[in-house]
Amino acid sequence: MARKEPRVENVDEKDIQVTSPKEWAAGIPAVYHSLKPAVQHMGAKRALEATFKMNQKDGFDCPSCAWPDPSHRSKFEYCEEGVKAVTWEASPVIIPSEFWAEHSITELRGRTEYWLGMQGRLTEPVYKPAGEDHYRVISWDEAFRIVADKLNGLDSPHEAAFYTSGRTSNEAAFLYQLLVRGFGTNNLPDCSNMCHESSGWAMGQTIGIGKATVTYDDFGKADLIILMGQNPGTNHPRMLTALEECKRNGGSIVAVNPLPEAGMRRYKNPQKVRGIAGKGTELADQFLQIRLGGDMALLQAISKRVLEAEEKNPGTVLDHDFLEKHCEGLADLKEHLVHLDDQTVVEATGLPIEEINELADRYLRAEKVIITWAMGITQQKKAVPTIKEIINLLLLRGNIGKPGAGAAPIRGHSNVQGDRTMGIWEQMPPAFLDALGKEFNFDPPRDHGVDAVETFYKMQEGHIKVFVALGGNLISAISDTQFAEAAMQKTEMTVQISIKLNRSHLITGEEALILPTKGRTEQDIQESGPQFVSVEDTVCVVHASRGNLTPVSQNLLSEPAIVSRLGALVVGDRIDADWEGYEKNYDLIRDHIGRVVDGCDNYNERIRHEGGFVLPNGPRDSRTFPTPTGKAVLTVNDLEAVERPEGTLILQSLRSHDQWNTTIYGHNDRYRGIRGGRHVLFMNAQDITELGLADGQYVDIHGIHHDGAERVLRKFRVVSYPTPKGCVAAYYPEANVLVPMDHVAEGSNTPVSKTVLVRVEPNLDPAHEQAEDFKTRAPA
Ligand SMILES: Nc1nc2c(c(=O)[nH]1)N[C@H]1C(S)=C(S)[C@@H](COP(=O)(O)OP(=O)(O)OC[C@H]3O[C@@H](n4cnc5c(=O)[nH]c(N)nc54)[C@H](O)[C@@H]3O)O[C@H]1N2
Ligand SMILES: Nc1nc2c(c(=O)[nH]1)N[C@H]1C(S)=C(S)[C@@H](COP(=O)(O)OP(=O)(O)OC[C@H]3O[C@@H](n4cnc5c(=O)[nH]c(N)nc54)[C@H](O)[C@@H]3O)O[C@H]1N2
Ligand code: SF4
Ligand SMILES: [Mo]
Q1: What is the largest distance, in Å, between two alpha-carbon atoms of the chain?
Q2: Measuring CA to CA, how many Å separate 133 from each of 26, 107, 120, 410?
Q3: In what order do the strands lie in the sheet with 24-26?
Q4: Protein residue with its CA nearest to atom 2 in ligand 3
Q5: CA 753, CA 746: separation in Å to the nearest integer?
């Protein structure tokens, strides 16, 4: 394919513009904005080929988020974000061989993630020898040999860590964990460690399974959906269609969020005439503008009101039959919540008591309730107990295991849930390891491996010497950027299997390699013919995904091919694996999956059914709870206030509308009214005044932590925004500099990216003292 030049605009943070935040999401502007870049970069033909196959039964799974497809699909089962993801991946712009001689690694480190991503697709394996500052192109054989020799030369397999990001297919993930365990370690950190790990722990300990207990159709059947700590308008856009369906069927929706996110207010469905012409559907019936970290108190307050209502009208409020048959712990929970006082709740949540009462009334009136949540809940110090409180509230009225009701952690990466099902976890349970060992005739390691945060401590201590990543951009995604980069640079070798350039390729070990791979959208033809892969969505539906575009280069290997070739050299015949065969025919991988992974029997056959199949889920299907006692557990959790000393603020880090995690598509955050920049700090107007600052002023944001280390982000613009007093927000991954590595959720070790203590000071750089060029929003 002919090289096309990347078009990279020069983004000057000085020209940032701010207007009022939007009240609605999607509709015509969204479709227009989404199609424009696709057509510009890809050419109309390739763009159309891509979008028409996205999320169709014979096409590829949208590589963006994990939101499910309805069983009746329209011709346009995609959203703006999906189109952006596909465009970013499938644009036929490639990095030429000369690039590596022209740019030193040091120079590239000065570039932004946006610039790096816009250079185009990686198509050749490259290698940076020790002591050099440039990558150079090498052959695939050389690349595999260098990595294998290094791994095989380690004193212990635990000196290597193997990261996975959640776009990886089930087939690649299964082979990868086999390679790692065959090699002899459980060091399998993944993006989930930073994402829904807290959900997995809390749900595992209470209902016995860390996955959503709802199906797609349940959203349309619910009387009430409570969305907590989630911004679906940007991060799961087609979820708004499911919410709209709930409303059309007479259900109501409540959003609990510090920010009035656009999609929560009004939604214009781009696939419906009324969405384009009308005002759209009002989605949220109630919006509770909660303080950062206040959710646990809110949930306890609602549960307490449920229990009080039962006291008043015995036998009519709780689902006694369900509680007796299927649950334990009710008495302790009752006893605990009696002592909760309203004052504590009001302080923690910042919510008027009337709003809390209103939500309790809504909950009591509804027969079928779904609670959904995402990063606003999971990336908190008390995330695990908070999610346990979600489960408590649901269990009290039997809202698990019946139509239109359930617990719904909304996953991020398109296959992050499938990767876990396939064994990507540093702590897979013994039953899985037994089955794996039996299938491949070896003894898998049993000691738990390291998670994402632990990986960095082990690197810093010199215990992890080789780092391999199957996708992702861990150095930008993890907390404490300075600490993390220093730790990564202590390793002896870093190996990144990637589709595009990112910062993780530039913060390297002594030696480093980049192995380019095919994307989800691209055809994958092997010796036995065209191949497909499979993925699992947020509601446990497993289905096939077939790329249809011509790969941007014929030199690319698929992820399963890369992992098999490494497996042959690193593990070889130490286990009974047909490494050569897997690459030729992915059915062979699926045969193993069918025998090893719970719920995947006859995988090859069932994955070929139209629309795939649904994995079993005890709580959802039959109110069977795979806990040690066979019962769902109501838990007692102690509240702890988020401390905010005078003069400090609590910062959350979040996603803009123009990014995919660490991938920056552009510099606008349309729904929040930001154009042309990302270096902004959203702040409550009263805080701005009290701190003697002005809207639009440049400030420095200092992290405050007991270790006293300097963590600072300089020259960010203050943007007056409807966020609760004391709570500020900035974009991830820029804000990761401020999150201390040991600031993690209790129990799940997930970085607490949503409550970081900071201090804000005027930036004293004379050139920026005045913010005259700042275009403030017109008064609302
Ligand atoms: N376009 C796009 N789609 C994506 C992604 C992307 O980057 N871009 N990322 C994917 C991934 S991996 C994930 S995990 C998901 C993330 O999806 P989200 O969880 O929606 O992502 P965030 O931007 O982190 O937004 C967190 C939301 O929680 C709110 N929040 C923060 N703190 C609190 C709190 O203490 N309490 C409550 N109640 N709310 C709070 C924030 O205001 C914000 O609305 O999206 C996935 N989809
Ligand atoms: N402060 C803060 N930190 C956070 C978060 C937050 O909200 N705040 N969110 C956390 C969350 S929820 C997550 S999930 C993590 C995300 O952490 P990661 O999953 O590590 O990061 P991504 O940005 O999703 O990874 C993007 C890279 O993946 C590669 N890639 C894309 N598609 C493919 C593919 O098909 N194959 C391969 N091999 N590579 C591919 C590309 O090279 C791209 O640069 O970040 C976490 N970090
Ligand atoms: S909602 Fe998520 S999976 Fe669906 S099209 Fe949009 S980005 Fe893709
Ligand atoms: Mo995520």
Answers
A1: 77
A2: 45, 9, 21, 41
A3: 24-26, 266-268, 281-282
A4: 65
A5: 13
Which ligand has the nearest atom to the CA of 227? 1
For residue 387, the surrounding DSSP H or E stretch is helix 383-396
CB of 652 sitting under 6 A from ligand 1: yes
Establish whether residue 410 lines the binding site of ligand 2, counting it when its CB lies within 6 angstroms of any ligand atom.
no
Which residue in 514, 475, 494 sits closest to 160, CA to CA? 494
Taking residue 329's Cβ as centre, other Cβ atoms within 10 Å add up to 18
Three-state SS sequence of 388-420? HHHHHHHHHCCCCCCCCCEEEECCCECCHHHHH
Distance 475 CA to ligand 2 centre (A): 10
**What contacts 669, CB < 8 A, 6 or more positions away?**
656, 657, 658, 678, 731
660 lines ligand 1 (CB under 6 A): yes
Q: What is the tens place of the pLDDT at every residue in 266-316?
A: 666 655 544 444 556 678 999 999 999 999 999 999 999 999 999 999 999
C-alpha 266/C-alpha 269 separation (Å) is 10
What element of type H or E holds 758?
strand 756-762
Q: What is the mean pLDDT of residues 361-383?
A: 98
Handedness of CA 132, 135, 139, 141 (dihedral sign): positive
Structure tokens at 564: 């098999």
Closest atom of ligand 1 to CA, residue 729 = 42
CB 34 within 8 A of CB 84: yes
Whether residue 261 has its Cβ less than 6 Å from ligand 1: yes
Q: Is 64 in the pocket of ligand 3 (CB under 6 A)?
A: yes
Region for residue 82 given its phi and psi (left: phi exceeds 0; alpha: psi -120 to 50; beta: otherwise): alpha
With CA atoms as reference, report the closest residue to 290 among 167, 163, 377, 393.
Answer: 377
User: What CA–CA distance (Å, rounded) separates 78 from 81?
Assistant: 8
Ligand 1 site-directed mutation target among 79, 168, 299, 654, most atoms within 8 Å of CB? 654
The verdict on the CB of residue 194 being under 6 Å from ligand 2 is yes
| Number of Cβ within a 10 Å radius of residue 647 | 10
Q: What's the predicted TM-score (pTM) here?
A: 0.95
Whole-angstrom CA distances from 435 to 444, 573, 613, 713 are 10, 18, 22, 48
Angstrom distance (rounded) from CA 288 to CA 351: 7
Domains of the chain and CATH, by start: 21-90 (no CATH), 99-193+415-598 (3.40.50.740), 197-409 (3.40.228.10), 649-775 (2.40.40.20)
CA of 213 to the centre of ligand 4 (A): 19
Which ligand 3 atom lies nearest to the CA of residue 85? 7
Q: Can you give the pLDDT at residue 4? A: 54
Least confident range of 27-31, 41-45, 71-75, 474-478: 27-31
Measured in Å, residue 474 CA sits from the centre of ligand 2 at 7
Concatenate the DSSP letters of all residues of 645-693 into one string.
-TT-EEEEEE--TTEETTEE--S-BGGGTEES---EEEE-HHHHHHTT-
Instruction: Return the ligand 3 atom nearest residue 55 CA.
Output: 5
- CA atoms of 638 and 332, how far apart (whole Å): 12
Q: Cα of 771 to ligand 1 centre, how many Å?
A: 30
Q: What is the pLDDT of residue 780?
A: 34
Our answer on whether the CB atom of 195 is closer than 6 Å to any ligand 1 atom is yes
